[in-house]
Write a structure and sequence with these properties.
The complex is a heterodimer of chains A (about 425) and B (about 450).
Chain A: H1 2-16, H2 18-21, E1 26-29, E2 35-40, E3 46-54, H3 67-74, E4 78-79, E5 82-83, H4 84-93, E6 97-102, E7 106-114, H5 118-130, H6 136-153, H7 157-170, H8 183-188, H9 191-201, E8 207-213, H10 217-228, E9 249-254, E10 259-267, H11 276-287, H12 294-301, E11 309-315, E12 320-329, H13 333-350, H14 354-367, H15 375-387, H16 394-403, H17 407-417, E13 424-429
Chain B: E1 12-15, E2 24-28, E3 34-39, E4 45-52, H1 66-73, H2 85-92, E5 96-101, E6 106-113, H3 117-129, H4 135-154, H5 157-169, H6 183-186, H7 191-201, E7 207-213, H8 217-227, E8 252-257, E9 265-272, H9 281-294, H10 301-309, E10 313-320, E11 328-336, H11 342-359, H12 363-380, H13 384-396, H14 401-405, H15 407-412, H16 416-426, E12 432-438, H17 440-448
Parallel strand pairs in B: 3-7, 8-12
Antiparallel strand pairs in B: 1-2, 2-3, 4-6, 4-7, 5-6, 9-11, 9-12, 10-11
Helix pairs in contact in B: 1-7, 3-8, 9-16, 10-11
The chains are: A alpha+beta (about 425), B alpha+beta (about 450).
C-alpha cells in the first residue's frame, strides 16, 4: 500500500516542479553598485523586503557583549528628526511593518510596505538605518527591557540548556555565549558603545538584500541606493572559525520543574561539503519535523516519553553542528536519552532503508515548492540563499541534488555524521537516574 | 452506501472581500457539510482544513481534555489507513499536516501540492467516520498529552497563572476548563470516552470544510461530493447552549508564587462580550480598544503612560479575541520595572485606565489603526492559509460569511464614542480577575509587612 503510494509520487513530484521555474529571480544592481535579488509579482500591491548584514552579534568584543543586540533594538526608537514615538507613529500611519533582529551571524531587517507608500516608507527606514538617534533615554529604556529578558532567561530551562550547550561547545568564541549579553556587560554599555556598534555592524561590505512583490528591478535599484548608499563602506572584522571543544557525555543543571529539557548534539557538516545533501536527508530521517521521523516515532509515538523531539543541522558562518532537543518528565528523561543514543548508533551502523530514503526524498522534493507561497517567504528565502553563496538557479537544481543521493552515499555519510560516543547531552531539570 | 452522490450543492454564491481579494465561494452538501473555497492561483498549493464545531467547552463534565486527546488520536488510523500512515502518506507527497483544538472547535489541516487534493480529501473523509483505536494506542498517546501538559503548562508559571485565572473568570461557563485538561482528569481519559465523543460530534453536519489555494469551486465541489457526500449526518447533535456566566458582582484576585518566576507581573482579565452573528459592533470596539491600550510598544496608551512617562513598567500589553461562542475576556498585562512593586504597578494601571475613559482616545491614534486595518486586508492576501483560518474559525463559532467579510469594515467604523462606551462597560474591576505572578520571597515579605512590600532588586 505504502509502496504503491511512493511509486505514484515519483512522477507527480516531477509534475509539480515546473511551478518553480515560475519563480523568476532577477539579479539587480543599483546605479550605485548595491546588489539585490528580486522576484517581481504584481498581483498584490505591496512589497516584502529583506536585508541582512553579515556578522551580527559575533563582531562585538567580549566586554561589550550585547551591544549589537541593544543597538539593533534601539534602531526603531528614534531617527533623524523623529523621536521614538514620532518614528512609530509615522510607520503606523504608512501601514508599514518594519522589524529588526540581531542574530549570531547577521543583523536582519524585515519590511513590508504598500506600493502607494513606498517612497515614504523607504525614507523612514533610511533614517533608522543611516541616522538613528540612539537618544540616551531610549537606550536606557531598551536596556531595561533587555535586562528584564536576561533575568527571565536565567529561570528559563530551555535558555539555560542551550546556553550551557553553547558554552561547553564553543568556549570563548562568540558562539559560546549569548549575543543578548550578560547583566554585567549590558548594564555597563554606554551610548557611545551603541553608536560604535552601529558603525561596525551595518555596513555596505556585508549587506544582502532580497525583494519580492510589486516592484520593478529599476525601482528596486533606486530604493537600494536611497536606503543603503550612505552607510559606511566597511565595518568590524568577522570572527574566525569556531573550534569545537567536543565535550561528550551528560551535564545536568538542577532546576525545579516536573520536566527536564534536553539539548544534545555534536559536530555537523558544512553546507558546501559534497556530502551535505546526504546528511540533510539523514537528519530528516532521524529527527526532521515530521511525525514519521525516527526519533518522533521511537520516543513519542511508541513510548510516549515526550510531546516532541527533533534534530536539525545547524549551519552557522563559523561552525556546523548536528543538534536536537526535547523535554521529558524527570522520571523518564534517562530512558529517552538512551533511546536517542540507541537510534544514533543504529543509523551510524545500518544507515536507512531504501523505503525511508525514498519517502524522505519525495517529502523534501515535494515540499520545496510549497515554501515559495507568498512575497514574505520568497524574500526571506532569497536573502538566505545569497548569504549561503548559492546561485539563483539553485531553486531549480536543488531537488535534482537530493534525488542524486544514493544508498551508498547514505551509508558512508551516516557513519561519518552520527557519532554516538561524541554526543553531548545537557539536561536542565530534576532528572531521576542521571 | 448512502445514495446521495447526486447533485447536492444546494446553495452556491460568491462573495468578494472588500479590498478586491481573491474570490470566496461557499456551498453546502446535502448531508449538511458546509464548504468554503478561497481561490489563490499564485502558487500550485492547496490547504485543506476541516473544522469540527466541537471543542473543549463542549466536553462532558469530568472529562476535561477529551477534545484535545481525540485530536491526537485521530492520527491513529482507520479501517484502511494504518497508525500514523495518514501523516506518512501526506509527507510522502511533500505535504505537511497537523491539527489544533480550541474551546469552540477542533481543526485538522494539510498543506500540499494542489493536484493531491483528491488524496487528502479522501483520507480526511475516511477518518471522519472510520477511526479505529486500540487500547495500546490510547494508553501511549495519553502519556504524550501528559508530557504536553508538563511542557506547556506545568513547566511555565505564567501558563499556570493564566489557567488559574480562567478558572476564576469563568465560574459557570466551560471556558474555565483548560483545553489540555486538568491533569487528574486527563489521567483517566479512556478509549470509550474518546470514541463516544467522536461518534457524536464528528459528522458532516457538524463541520466546515475550507479549501484554499490553487483550486476552482467546481473542482472542489466535485471532490467534496465524491468523498464527503456519502457520509451520513449525525443524529445526536444538540444546540451548543452552554452554561452561561452569572453577572459578576465582586472582583476576584489570585496570587501565584513560584520559585521559577523571574519577572513578577500583574495580569488582569475582564469578562467581555464576543462577536455575535449580525452584531459585531461592541466586539469591534473592544478589538480597537485593545490595540489602542496595548498594541504598540512605542505609541500605545499603556506604553506611553507606564513605560515612557511614569517609567514604572518595562512591558505592557492588552489583548482581546472576540471570536467565540460565549462571552470571552479582555486582558491587560503590566510588568513593573525593577524596584517597583506589583501593588504600585496595578494602581498605576488603574489610574491610566480611568484617565483614558475620562479623556477618550487620541483621534490620530484611531486614524492610524484604521489605516492599518485597510492595509491589513491587502497584506492578508499574501497568506491564503491565514485567510482559511479566518473563515474556518468564524463559521465554527456561528458567525456568517457576511459577518466574517464585514469584520474589517466593522473595525474601520469604530468611533471614539464606541470605544469609550465599550471601555466603560468592560473595564470594570467588579467584572475582573486580577492575577499576581510573584516569587515566593516577595509573597512572604508582603505577608509580614504589607506596607513595605517591595520586589527584591537584582
Amino acid at each position: 500500500m505504502i509502496r504503491a503510494t511512493f511509486l505514484a509520487v515519483a512522477t507527480l513530484v516531477l509534475a509539480a516542479l515546473p511551478a518553480l521555474a515560475e519563480i523568476k529571480i532577477q539579479e539587480v544592481t543599483s546605479p550605485g553598485g548595491i546588489k539585490a535579488w528580486l522576484v517581481e509579482d504584481h498581483n498584490i500591491p505591496f512589497t516584502a523586503l529583506e536585508i541582512q548584514f553579515r556578522g551580527g552579534t559575533s563582531v562585538e568584543a567580549p566586554e561589550k557583549r550585547g551591544v549589537v543586540n541593544l543597538m539593533t533594538a534601539t534602531l526603531e526608537e528614534g531617527a533623524a528628526d523623529l523621536d521614538s514615538r514620532g518614528f512609530a507613529e509615522a510607520r503606523d500611519a504608512l501601514a508599514a511593518d518594519i522589524s529588526f533582529d540581531a542574530g549570531a551571524d547577521s543583523v536582519g531587517v524585515s519590511v513590508r510596505f504598500l506600493t502607494e507608500n513606498r517612497d515614504q516608507v523607504v525614507e523612514l527606514l533610511r533614517k533608522a538605518l543611516v541616522e538613528p538617534r540612539f537618544d540616551q533615554d531610549a537606550v536606557d529604556r531598551v536596556r531595561g527591557q533587555v535586562l528584564s529578558i536576561l533575568r527571565g532567561n536565567e529561570k528559563d530551562p530551555e535558555k539555560i540548556a542551550s546556553l550551557t550547550y553553547n558554552r561547553l561547545t564553543f568556549g570563548d568564541h562568540p558562539y559560546g555565549s549569548t549575543g543578548d549579553g550578560t547583566i554585567e556587560t549590558v548594564t555597563a554599555l554606554t551610548r557611545d558603545d551603541v553608536v560604535a556598534a552601529h558603525k561596525a555592524a551595518l555596513t555596505r561590505d556585508r549587506v544582502y538584500v532580497a525583494a519580492a512583490g510589486d516592484i520593478t528591478a529599476e525601482e528596486l535599484g533606486l530604493v537600494l541606493d536611497r536606503l543603503l548608499g550612505a552607510l559606511p563602506a566597511t565595518g568590524a572584522p568577522q570572527p574566525g572559525k569556531a573550534e569545537l571543544l567536543s565535550p561528550a557525555g551528560v551535564t545536568v543543571t538542577k532546576f525545579p520543574s516536573p520536566q527536564s529539557v534536553v539539548v544534545f548534539g555534536h559536530a555537523g557538516i558544512p553546507r558546501e561539503d559534497p556530502d551535505f545533501f546526504a546528511a540533510f536527508l539523514l537528519n530528516e530521517v532521524m529527527g526532521g519535523g515530521r511525525f514519521t521521523a525516527r526519533l518522533m516515532s521511537e520516543v513519542r509515538e511508541k513510548r510516549g516519553l515526550t510531546y516532541g523531539i527533533g534534530t536539525y543541522l545547524v549551519g552557522r558562518d563559523h561552525a556546523d553542528l548536528l543538534m536536537g532537543q526535547f523535554a521529558a518528565s524527570n522520571e523518564k528523561v534517562a530512558e529517552a536519552i538512551e533511546v536517542v543514543r540507541a537510534e544514533w548508533a543504529r543509523i551510524a551502523t545500518e544507515g536507512v532503508t531504501a523505503e525511508e530514503l525514498e519517502a524522505t526524498k519525495t517529502y523534501l522534493t515535494g515540499s520545496y515548492p510549497l515554501r515559495f507561497d507568498g512575497n514574505g517567504p520568497i524574500a526571506s528565502i532569497l536573502v538566505g540563499m545569497q548569504m549561503e553563496g548559492m546561485p539563483t538557479d539553485y531553486v531549480t537544481t536543488r531537488n535534482a541534488m537530493i534525488e542524486a543521493v544514493t544508498m551508498e552515499d547514505i551509508k558512508r555519510v551516516a557513519a561519518r555524521l552520527f557519532q554516538p560516543e561524541a554526543l553531548k547531552f545537557v539536561v536542565v531539570g530534576d532528572p531521576v537516574g542521571l | 452506501m448512502p445514495g446521495n452522490l447526486g447533485p447536492s450543492a444546494v446553495l452556491a454564491f460568491a462573495l468578494a472581500l472588500p479590498a478586491a481579494a481573491e474570490p470566496v465561494t461557499s456551498f453546502t452538501l446535502e448531508n449538511g457539510l458546509d464548504v468554503v473555497v478561497i481561490e489563490d492561483h499564485r502558487a500550485p498549493v492547496v490547504v485543506q482544513m476541516i473544522w469540527y464545531r466541537v471543542g473543549a467547552a463542549d466536553e462532558p463534565p469530568g472529562h476535561s481534555g477529551i477534545a484535545h486527546f481525540l485530536e491526537h488520536l485521530m492520527f491513529k488510523g482507520t479501517d484502511t489507513v494504518g497508525p500514523n500512515e495518514f501523516s506518512a502518506t501526506v509527507e510522502a507527497q511533500g505535504g505537511d499536516d497537523n491539527a489544533f483544538t480550541s474551546w469552540d472547535y477542533t481543526a485538522y489541516f494539510q498543506r500540499i501540492a494542489a493536484d493531491r487534493l483528491d488524496l487528502v480529501m479522501q483520507m480526511e473523509a475516511d477518518r471522519m467516520r472510520n477511526l479505529r483505536l486500540t487500547e495500546e494506542d490510547v494508553a501511549t498517546e495519553r502519556q504524550v498529552i501528559l508530557e504536553e501538559r508538563a511542557q506547556r503548562t506545568d513547566s511555565d508559571p505564567g501558563a499556570l497563572l493564566m489557567e488559574q485565572m480562567r478558572a476564576a473568570q469563568f465560574m459557570n461557563s466551560p471556558y474555565g476548563i483548560p483545553i489540555i485538561g486538568w491533569r487528574h482528569e486527563m489521567e483517566a481519559l479512556s478509549q470509550a470516552d474518546a470514541l463516544s465523543y467522536y461518534e457524536r460530534f464528528y459528522a458532516p453536519n457538524n463541520a466546515t470544510l475550507v479549501i484554499a489555494g490553487d483550486v476552482t469551486p467546481d473542482a472542489v465541489r466535485a471532490l467534496a461530493e465524491k468523498h464527503y457526500g456519502p457520509i451520513a449526518p449525525s443524529e445526536a447533535l444538540v444546540p451548543r447552549d452552554r452554561p452561561q456566566e452569572p453577572p459578576q458582582l465582586a472582583e476576584r484576585r489570585i496570587t501565584l508564587a513560584d520559585e521559577r518566576v523571574s519577572e513578577p507581573y500583574v495580569f488582569r482579565t475582564y469578562l467581555a462580550p464576543e462577536r455575535d452573528p449580525g452584531d459585531q459592533k461592541t466586539a469591534a470596539a473592544l478589538t480597537v480598544l485593545a490595540e489602542l491600550l496595548g498594541g504598540n510598544g512605542q505609541t500605545s496608551v499603556l506604553a506611553r503612560a507606564l513605560q515612557f512617562d511614569a517609567q514604572v513598567a518595562v512591558y505592557t500589553s492588552a489583548f482581546y479575541d472576540g471570536t467565540g461562542i460565549d462571552d470571552g475576556s479582555f486582558g491587560l498585562v503590566v510588568m513593573p520595572s525593577p524596584g517597583v512593586d506589583l501593588q504600585t504597578a496595578e494602581a498605576e494601571l488603574d489610574r491610566v485606565l480611568a484617565e483614558f475613559i475620562a479623556q477618550g482616545p487620541d483621534p490620530a491614534a484611531l486614524e492610524r489603526i484604521r489605516t492599518q486595518v485597510r492595509a491589513g486586508e491587502i497584506y492578508a492576501r499574501d497568506n491564503v492559509e491565514s485567510l482559511a483560518r479566518r473563515y474556518g474559525e468564524g463559521l465554527s463559532v456561528g458567525l456568517t460569511l457576511e459577518d466574517i467579510d464585514g469584520w474589517d469594515e466593522a473595525l474601520a467604523a469604530v468611533t471614539e464614542a464606541d470605544i469609550v462606551t465599550a471601555a466603560r462597560e468592560v473595564l470594570d474591576r467588579r467584572k475582573a480577575v486580577t492575577g499576581w505572578l510573584t516569587r515566593p520571597e516577595a509573597e512572604a515579605a508582603a505577608t509580614v509587612e504589607p506596607a513595605a512590600q517591595e520586589e527584591p532588586k537584582e
